[in-house]
Each structure stands twice: as C-alpha cells, then as structure tokens.
C-alpha cells in the first residue's frame, strides 16, 4: 500500500487540523481507545511509528502505550468524535474502546500426577530455565516461594527488566523472579467518571510491581513457586507448598489494580512487553464475565495472545467463574488454552449441628476461637421477605434480631466473607452461608472473620426449614480442620465457566480443567486472607478458589512440557494436555458436576482433567500453524482487513471459503441445522508422531447416542520417514430423531492407540 501522504508539509497541514485541532472546541468526555494501525502504511519520512502516531493521529500527551510486538498501534485518551474520525483513516484497522476486565478469582501438584524424582518433574528438571510471564496484580517478592537458592544463572535470552517503584527496587528481583513491570497508564486515564485521570489509591495500592491484592502472588506461586516447608493458612492445608514448575523463572506484569480491575490497554501493553522480553509461557487469569465475549478482533486478550502464540509463546487463561450456566466460558480464542476448575482430594469440613440433632456437612477455613459445642439461637433474616436481608447485604440486618445469634445468609450479590462481616457488625456470633439452587452443592472454603460454615443448596434448605418449623431454633458449628483423600475427586467446580463456545461453537471450550478449588499458595502482606479492609491478619499463604487458580496449574504444566520438549509448539503442548486428560475420578468412575451431581460433559470439563504423567509422552499431537488460524478466521467470515487486526501482518483468504471445523484442533464439534435429516459433517485432522518412530495406531470410536461416526483410515502407520498422518472423521446424524440432554448436545469421542498411548479427542454434536 502506498504511503497515505508523502510530504511532511502536507501531512502537517492536512492532518493536524483534521485529527487534533478540530476536537479542542468540542466539549465531550474523554475516553481511552486502542488504535490498531496498519504498520506498513507508515510514510518513510517518519523515523519511527511513534513519530507518525503523534504527528498524524493525536498529540504526545494523549498517547498512553505504543505497541510494536504482538500488536501495531497505540492507546490514547480521545473524545468519541476524535475516535470516530480516526476509524475512517485508511491506515487505521480498528478503534477499540478500552474496557475493564476482572480477575477470575499444595496437594494439587501431586494430584496432577507429579512426584519428586519421577516422571515429568524429573525429566524436565522441574521446568528449569523456562520463563513464565504472569499478567496479574503483581507479586510479594519476599515470599519463600520466590527464593532463588540453588538456581542457575538467569537465562541469557532474557531481555526484560525489574522496574522500580513504590516499595519495589531492582534488588527485589533475583534468579527466580527475573523480571517485574507494572502497567498503569490505562487505569489512570480511565477516569471512572471523575475526570481525565484517576490516580491509584495509595493507601490501598503500590505504584509498582508490588502486590496489594494477593491474587498475583497466589497465581505466580501456583505456577512456579519453590518448595516451602511448614506452609499453611492459619493451620489449614499444612505441609509443603510448591508450584507446578518449581524451577521455572518468573516474570511478573502487573496489569490489575486493587478493587479496580484491569484495563485492556494495559493488558495489551503487558503482552507486548512479555513477548519482547522473552517469556515462554503467559498465564493470564483475567477475563470478562456474564458469558459475554467480544469478537476476537475487538478482544485485546485474544489479540495479544495471538501475537504471543504466533511467536511460539504458550498462553493459558481462565475460563471464568460464571458457571454452572451454559455458555458462561470466556477467553474463547482457539490459540488460547482455556482452563476450567475442578476439585482436589483435600477438603476443609465443618459441621452444622441443629437443635434437633441433625448434622449438616459443609466447609470452612475459620481459624479463630471455636464455638466448642455451645448452642446459639438461629435466625434466618430471609423470613421477612426482604431480599437484601436474606443476602446479608451491608446495613441490611437488624442488630436486635442478630445479636448473640447464628445468622443464616443466602449466597450471592456480595462477597461470601463480606456477609460474615455484616453479621459481625450486627452482633451475630456466627454465620451459616447457604447456597441457592444456582450454586447447587458447590462449596469453597473461606477464612471467615467469625465462626461460619458454607452449606450446599440441599443442606441450606434443611436449615431454613428447621428455622421455619421450630419455635426456638438453635445450632452450633464444629470445625474439622484438613482432610485428605476425599472421594470422588476431581469434580467439576460449580462456578467453572461452561460451554458451548458463544463465539465459535465449532471449537470446544473450555479445553480442559485443572485444580481450582481450595488451592494453597503464597499471599501478600498487604491484605488479610479475606481481602477485606477490616481483616488485619497476616498470612504467608492463603487458600483460594476460582478458575484463576486452575489457569496457573496449566501454565506451570506448559513450562514443564516446554522444558522436556523444547521443540514443541504451543499447539502441540495443548494437544498433549488435552488428548491425555482424565475423564474419570479417583473412584474410577466418570467425573461428575459439583452443581448437579450428574456425570459431567465436555461442555463442563473440555477434554478432561490435566494429567501430566501422561502428557509428557502423548504419542501423537495435533499441531496448528499460524496459517491454520488464519484459515479458521476466514472460515468464520472475517474479512482480511479484520483478520489483520489480530494477526498484525496482512493476510489473504482462500478463494474457496475454509470450514472452521477443519482447524486442526484436538476436539471435534459438529453443528447441524434442526431440519437436517441424515446430514453429515466431515473433519480433516493431521497428527504428528512424537513417540516411538515406528508405530501403528488404530482408532476406537465412542459415537454419541443416535449419531454415526466413521474414520478413514482406521489405521495409521508411522516410521522415521513418516511422522505425520492425516485422517477424516465423518459424523452423520438425523437431527429430527436426536434426543438431546439438558446441554442441547450429545457427546462421544475418537481415540487412537498403539497399545501404549491413548490419544483421545471429544466429539460434540449440536443441533
């Protein structure tokens, strides 16, 4: 494409009035925008893209970030009219309004199949020299989890920095924490209705990589924390805390700010820096919510992740915590590994004992003075019919009703631990937190400030029925500490984001699940274990739940696999994880859904639960090239100029429109129109042999009920000379006669085996 204008004199005369001066007379609120530029359009007169941006598109003070690695363009503070005018410029590919994303908030390594001196830990040397970039709330660097004792020198390829700031200097980095940066310009410019800039609250935050929230410290140590002996959260989960890849190096990119979320413009700047710095893996436990996902070309996480993956960087992200509702999964791009959450075989039981002798099982991480069996009056504010009171919202409880009693609070609308604080302020001595039908029996432990126990929906209903039917209801709560060996496990967490994929139903999401319930990991000194401002307790470790906790397990796993197999692409690493994942629990029965108790489906757990012992040696893998992703984007109807917003480089779509289901993904989703009778879908797949050179694989089909599935060929022969083989799967269904379950789909699988390896891919059929 020819330069838009060749003369700098004409540039200044023609564009500065159009794109800058004309907006000074318009009284409009300022917003932050991300501007995607066609970098090849830069006139040669400008020495850098930055000079071009400031001369032609906006002035220097308005620019926040410039992007040149995973993305070409800049972010700036503009009026809506200015942004709209820029969108018409021939060199501008997209104008994206900055949005605020949210965080998706020790026995788990063993639960993944990792053992000292054995298997993948040994083979990969615990992930030594692999660099994991964590985009989160920063880090508390003094924790034992980030010690560099006995680590070798920083990898020579590392190009990052240790950025100084408030209570953080270059000395806070070491051979373990090799880099730290913070990105705040988008946050400060967001305004939030308070003007063009919003400074951070320096009584709550640090303008530096130091973590005031705790989430980033927790996720970083989950992925790559060193062995820390005598670890616990106030006595719970006592033992040795360690990350999945204990010798991997950490680079921290602080993009989220306490109580303020994470701005897209800052996230994209962190992606840009991380790839330029030389990370091998990016872990991002951040995303949207409410099951709403922007198109890939308007989603800076998808855009940044593509730029990273296209350069060989593995990107894992959380599936979101809006389950168990259908289509609640987030971070849907096929070049991102999307991770849901499952339980582990450890729990923190508590028991509610009612005055009628009934004992109800729940969970709690309360570590204060026990109730010691004493019975207290029991009250349910929801009997009044006032919703705020039933939820124990701020200032909703009448102290005369709550004082000296155990209060039953319904879960939802406010943080679980905040409800306990409301009860405490009203004079209550304890709390029973009751799930509603949407949470089902899904429970997570919390370090409550008062004696409190979380109960599932059925037990919560039993408590309320007891209160309603008894003239003088009483209860007590007993705390049972830590129990291991829980069965069944894993179970899909009730909160874990569920499929189908709301953007591209041809791609199954989530990809897999990993431990995400009651995970012990390092914590900040700047916040108590509940995160409440009134919680002044200090703890070196904390126990959290969320897909935020599951994501870094997969990030650490990717570091181990990258260390063991440095020539594997990100798609090969994902394939190894997915095709070897468990679908059975520790009772050797199909995994179940915590919310319903029913057998879980690929919409709940993707390909299954991460199993690293098998992922180390998967036999066959499905690889995907950058061109494969481009053809997928062409197949879902994106025009080349729109695709370039994602890919950075210009692209062209084939004359014959590709089918998106032909993307070489390790799962298959067949979509049929309701009226189809005997319709068929074909899937082309290519596998690469990464096991023994001479191998013969044979297929096994578990067809979804009412569906015919065939594969050609049924046998694949590999040798030293032939490492790749292709096959075609044909799915045939009479949708008029198909009986769909509650999920609106039926499920099956195709597996390839050589007698040693089993390479399994789920099949989803949807009408």
TrEMBL record:
GO CC terms, sorted: apoplast
InterPro entries: PA_domain, Peptidase_S8/S53_dom, Peptidase_S8/S53_dom_sf, Peptidase_S8_Ser-AS, Peptidase_S8_subtilisin-rel, Peptidases_S8_3, S8pro/Inhibitor_I9, S8pro/Inhibitor_I9_sf
Peptidase S8/S53 domain boundaries: 127-597
Compartments (UniProt record): Secreted, Extracellular space, Apoplast
Residues in Inhibitor I9 domain copies: 32-104
CDD domains: PA_subtilisin_like, Peptidases_S8_3
Residue stretches making up the Subtilisin-like protease fibronectin type-III domain: 663-765
Described function: Required for arbuscular mycorrhiza (AM) development during AM symbiosis with AM fungi (e.g. Glomeromycota intraradices).
Entries under PANTHER family matching the protein: PROPROTEIN CONVERTASE SUBTILISIN/KEXIN
Protein name: Subtilisin-like protease SBT1.6
């Amino acid at each position: 494409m020819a330069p838009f204008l060749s003369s700098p004199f004409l540039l200044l005369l023609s564009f500065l009035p159009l794109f800058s001066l004309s907006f000074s007379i318009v009284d409009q609120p300022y917003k932050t925008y991300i501007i995607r530029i066609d970098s090849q359009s830069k006139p040669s007169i400008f020495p850098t893209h930055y000079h071009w941006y400031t001369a032609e598109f906006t002035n220097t003070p308005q620019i926040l970030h410039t992007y040149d690695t995973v993305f070409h363009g800049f972010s700036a503070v503009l009026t809506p009219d200015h942004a709209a005018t820029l969108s018409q410029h021939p060199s501008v590919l997209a104008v994206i309004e900055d949005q605020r994303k949210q965080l998706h908030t020790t026995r788990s390594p063993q639960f993944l199949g990792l053992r000292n001196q054995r298997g993948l830990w040994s083979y990969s040397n615990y992930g030594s020299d692999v660099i994991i970039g964590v985009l989160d709330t920063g880090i508390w660097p003094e924790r034992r989890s980030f010690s560099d004792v006995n680590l070798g020198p920083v990898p020579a390829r590392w190009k990052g920095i240790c950025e100084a700031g408030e209570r953080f200097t270059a000395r806070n980095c070491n051979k373990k924490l090799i880099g730290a940066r913070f990105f705040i310009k988008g946050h400060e410019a967001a305004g939030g209705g308070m003007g063009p800039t919003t400074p951070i609250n320096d009584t709550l935050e640090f303008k530096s990589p130091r973590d005031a929230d705790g989430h980033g410290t927790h996720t970083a140590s989950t992925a790559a924390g060193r062995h820390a002996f005598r670890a616990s959260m106030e006595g719970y989960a006592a033992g040795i805390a360690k990350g999945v890849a204990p010798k991997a190096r950490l680079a921290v990119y602080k993009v989220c700010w306490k109580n303020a979320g994470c701005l897209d413009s800052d996230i994209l700047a962190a992606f840009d820096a991380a790839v330029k710095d030389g990370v091998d893996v990016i872990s991002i436990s951040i995303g949207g919510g409410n099951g709403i996902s922007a198109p890939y070309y308007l989603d800076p996480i998808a855009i940044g992740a593509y730029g990273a993956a296209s350069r060989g960087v593995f990107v894992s992200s959380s599936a979101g915590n809006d389950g168990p509702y259908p289509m609640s999964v987030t971070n849907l791009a096929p070049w991102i590994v999307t991770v849901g959450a499952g339980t582990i075989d450890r729990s923190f039981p508590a028991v509610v004992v009612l005055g009628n002798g009934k004992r109800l099982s729940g969970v709690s991480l309360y570590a204060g003075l026990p109730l010691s069996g004493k019975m207290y009056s029991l009250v349910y504010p929801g009997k009044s019919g006032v919703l705020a009171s039933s939820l124990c919202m701020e200032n909703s409880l009448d102290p005369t009703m709550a004082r000296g009693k155990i209060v039953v609070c319904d879960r939802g609308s406010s943080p679980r631990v905040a409800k306990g604080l409301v009860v405490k302020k009203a004079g209550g001595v304890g709390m029973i937190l009751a799930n509603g039908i949407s949470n089902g029996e899904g429970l997570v432990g919390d370090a409550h400030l008062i004696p409190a126990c979380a109960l599932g929906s059925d037990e919560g209903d039993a408590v309320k029925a007891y209160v309603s039917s008894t003239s003088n209801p009483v209860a007590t709560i007993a705390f049972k500490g830590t129990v291991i060996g829980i069965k069944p496990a894993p179970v899909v967490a009730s909160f874990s984001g569920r499929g189908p994929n709301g953007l591209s139903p041809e791609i199954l999401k989530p990809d897999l699940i990993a431990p995400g319930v009651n995970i012990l990991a390092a914590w900040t000194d700047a916040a108590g274990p509940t995160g409440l401002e009134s919680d002044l307790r200090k703890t070196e470790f904390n126990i959290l739940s969320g897909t935020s906790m599951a994501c870094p397990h997969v990030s650490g796993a990717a570091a181990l696999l990258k260390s063991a197999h440095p020539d594997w692409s990100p798609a090969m690493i994902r394939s190894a994880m997915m095709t070897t994942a468990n679908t059975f629990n520790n009772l050797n029965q199909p995994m179940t859904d915590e919310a319903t108790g029913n057998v879980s489906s690929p919409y709940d757990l993707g390909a299954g639960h991460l199993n690293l012992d098998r992922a180390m040696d998967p036999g066959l893998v499905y690889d995907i090239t950058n061109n494969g992703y481009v053809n997928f984007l062409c197949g879902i109807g994106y025009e080349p100029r729109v695709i370039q917003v994602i890919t950075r480089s210009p692209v062209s779509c084939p004359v014959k429109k590709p089918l998106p289901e032909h993307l070489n993904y390790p799962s298959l989703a067949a979509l049929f129109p309701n009226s189809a009778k005997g319709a068929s879908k074909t899937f082309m797949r290519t596998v690469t042999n990464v096991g023994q050179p001479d191998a013969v694989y044979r297929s096994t089909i578990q067809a979804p009920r009412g569906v015919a599935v065939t594969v050609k060929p049924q046998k694949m022969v590999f040798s030293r000379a032939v490492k790749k083989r292709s096959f075609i799967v044909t799915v045939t269904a009479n949708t008029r006669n198909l009986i769909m379950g509650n999920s609106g789909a039926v499920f099956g699988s195709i597996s390839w085996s050589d007698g040693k390896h089993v390479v399994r891919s789920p099949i989803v059929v949807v009408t």
